């Protein structure tokens, strides 16, 4: 019971994500996505959510379920090669979840994605929000570049927007 109350308190009193991610930071994240996508044909999206609704906290909704919901709502799955990736941050818990489309499953393991999450979560706990997100985008981009490299002479078609999203 103490754990659920602590989680509820954290979600109820987490300051709005826009304070940690002002417009300049969001532009820096968008630029990192744009630069990364010149090296691979995958599509990266970043979404940040301040906290869960108190009912979702009491129901025990995990960050992973919210990330999967955001993956669908943002249509990250809607790419020709099924190689879209959502990096989701639940700010209240400083929890990162990565949801990758089915085209990546044979190539990038859950452990590799978890390594990217851990890298980001460590930076977030240190208060390095912008640097942590950019480092995660670069690490995810490196994984995509190995398996879905951008072919020389082929145009970089943006199938999904590079601009980060507040949920």
TrEMBL record:
Domain TPM: 16-142
InterPro entries recorded: TPM_dom (IPR007621)
UniProt-listed Gene3D superfamilies: 3.10.310.50
Domain of life (superkingdom): Bacteria
Protein name, UniProt field: TPM domain-containing protein
